[in-house]
Design brief:
The protein contains 3 helices and 2 strands, in the order E-E-H-H-H. The protein is α+β, with helices and mostly antiparallel strands and about 100 residues long. The chain has one domain. A two-stranded antiparallel sheet has the order 1-2. Helix 1 packs antiparallel against helix 3 and helix 2 packs antiparallel against helix 3. The longest helix has about 35 residues.
């Protein structure tokens, strides 16, 4: 169990316990958020993963949009999978 302290608007603090498995979901959200921001960065001409998607939208080319979305999604899934494996290896090493 992981103990978390939560502050209330009244100023009081409450202690809560969460299962240990819920701590592994934080890297998932961080990974998806970073890759999502990298994809949307192309909208402001900053390059990034979404340049293929946005050029497909400008050209009304559905195949280009789909391929860009598949690439960005695959990158998010692979990064999440890799971080999950790394986390499991580090946690298993810490327990030994």
């Amino acid at each position: 169990m992981v103990h978390v302290f939560a502050a209330r608007p009244s100023g009081s603090v409450r202690e809560m316990s969460t299962p240990r498995t819920s701590t592994g979901t934080v890297p998932v959200f961080v990974t998806v958020t970073v890759i999502g921001i990298g994809t949307v960065a192309a909208y402001i001409n900053a390059g990034g993963l979404g340049s293929l998607i946005f050029s497909g939208i400008a050209q009304t080319n559905g195949a280009k949009i789909a391929s860009g979305a598949v690439i960005a999604s695959a990158m998010a899934v692979l990064a999440d999978w890799g971080l999950l494996r790394l986390q499991r290896r580090l946690v298993a090493g810490a327990r030994a």
